[in-house]
Design goal:
One of its GO terms (molecular function) is protein-lysine N-methyltransferase activity. The chain is of the alpha+beta class. The protein contains 17 helices and 13 strands. The protein has three domains: 132 residues, set domain protein methyltransferase, domain 1; 148 residues, no CATH class; 140 residues, no CATH class. The structure holds S-adenosylmethionine.
């Protein structure tokens, strides 16, 4: 789902109208907001009247947080889907004990269990059972809405055309899904892969980080601290969206900027995410100028080029892994790794002086100018390789059947090729003049 500018249409009928009535009845507060259709993002949140935000004068109707900020949305704890509320959400599911067991003792991740509870409730609802959260479940996207945009649902032929930085994240996600599905099957749940994948994507795209001041959360790994949150899960993402906070009574949303006129979409920030991450985890990416965190990871390209000796030295100095570039430059960690690669055996006594120079560069005592040309040579070679791969992928994408998938792959490759071009121009100049000689590709 790309972020095109589209006029919002208030979602005030059908399931969304029923949901907003249900939400207010159960204590969810959103005095100046309504859900709206915002294609291609699906649903989102718009203002119905002016929101003055952090710097404005506080009007009569505002809920004010203890820190004096305007709270524009509030969802109480009792309505969250959390580890604590699991058995209420899916009565008789017996999933709670699986959560309480350690993972190496047959326990499951929060993600796996929430997805199982949701898949189970979908079946029970279809069989005629009631569910306290039914109105909320009814406004979630259905599987067909995920098929075009969530790479997890794509064929291998389609996903193989994604850029390597996107593909690496997708491969990790596929492994995680496979593991969770297998575990849930082993526990005796008989969901089809499609049923479970839909529920798993619902959890993936709609959870908030949730770590209440409760002893059971102290020892939980970060990735297990999660909650699904009615109403606040309607908000779409931007890199400068409103702030979501967990208070002792529930989640709140407060604007970070002043003055939103009526009929304006309000966003929250899901995290400092690159477009590769947004694409794999949430099924959309932002235009480059709207994502200040976009970058292209090259870790999987660079690691295989490092010898064990290089890796040991980089590890000792805290520079092993997390290599990337953005439209401005390669990150400093990449510089550190590529500079070290110029020393074939950095641990040899005979190379101690070269290693000192490298360490001085890391510490900022040496400008690294002597090695600049050799380093750029490698980085430019790397950019050329990625560019070639991108051109081949864009040619192959033309042969795919599904327009939605084509559009997503083309958009990400075009962004990456644009960044390759920008960073190369910054290094060598428009015509290679920055290198003292023409840079010929
Ligand atoms: C928490 S939900 C937000 C509500 C969702 N749009 C809906 O229709 O229910 C997250 C999903 O919204 C969509 N989304 C969020 N932010 C977006 C954005 N800036 N542009 C396009 N789609 C976005 C993605 O599909 C993402 O997986």
């Amino acid at each position: 789902m790309a972020d095109r500018k589209t006029a919002p249409t208030p979602a005030t009928t059908g399931t969304h109208a029923l949901f907003t009535i249900w939400a207010r009845k159960h204590g969810i507060e959103f005095p100046k907001l309504i859900p709206a259709y915002l294609p291609p993002a699906g649903l989102g949140i718009i203002s119905t009247e002016e929101i003055t935000g952090p710097d404005g004068a506080h009007g009569q109707t505002k809920t004010i947080s203890p820190t004096g900020e305007e709270v524009i949305a509030f969802t109480p704890n009792a309505l969250l889907l959390t580890r604590e509320n699991l058995e209420r959400f899916s009565p008789g599911c017996r999933l709670g004990p699986l959560l309480r067991r350690k993972k190496d003792d047959g326990g499951l991740s929060s993600h796996a269990v929430f997805a199982a509870a949701i898949a189970r409730e979908m079946r029970r609802i279809a069989e005629g059972h009631e569910n306290m959260w039914r109105e909320w479940i009814d406004v979630w996207p259905r599987a067909k809405e995920f098929r075009g945009c969530m790479p997890l649902m794509w064929s291998v032929e389609e996903s193989d055309l994604l850029p390597p930085s996107t593909k690496r994240l997708l491969d990790e996600q596929r492994e995680k899904f496979k593991r969770d599905f297998k575990m849930v099957e082993q526990k005796g749940f008989e969901f089809t892969k499609q049923e479970y994948m839909w529920a798993w994507i619902i959890v993936n795209t709609r959870t908030l980080f949730y770590k209440p001041a409760h002893p059971t959360y102290n020892e939980l790994p970060r990735e297990d601290c999660m909650a699904l949150c009615p109403f606040i899960d309607y908000f779409n993402h931007s890199d400068d969206g409103c702030k979501v906070q967990l208070t002792p009574t529930g989640f709140t949303v407060t604007p970070t900027k002043p003055n939103y006129p009526p009929n304006t979409q309000l966003f929250v920030t899901y995290g400092c995410h690159s477009n590769d991450f947004l694409l794999v985890e949430y099924g959309f990416n932002l235009p480059l100028e709207k994502n200040k965190w976009d970058e292209v990871s090259i870790t999987s390209n660079l690691l295989p080029l490092l010898s064990e000796e290089h890796k040991r030295v980089l590890y000792r100095e805290g520079f092993l892994g997390k290599y990337a570039f953005d439209k401005e430059a390669f990150c400093f960690r990449t510089q550190a790794a590529v500079r070290l690669m110029l020393i074939e055996h950095p641990e040899l006594d005979a190379n101690w002086r070269k290693l000192e120079v490298w360490k001085n560069f890391l510490a900022g005592h040496d400008d690294g100018e002597r090695e600049r040309y050799a380093v750029e040579e490698r980085l430019l070679g790397f950019l050329d390789g990625l560019e070639g791969e991108g051109r081949r992928a864009l040619f192959e994408v033309g042969k795919l059947q599904r327009q939605s998938v084509k559009g997503v792959i083309e958009m990400r490759w075009t962004q990456i090729l644009g960044m390759v071009n920008d960073v190369r121009t910054k290094m060598v100049g428009e015509n290679g003049e920055g290198r003292g000689r023409g840079y010929v590709r």
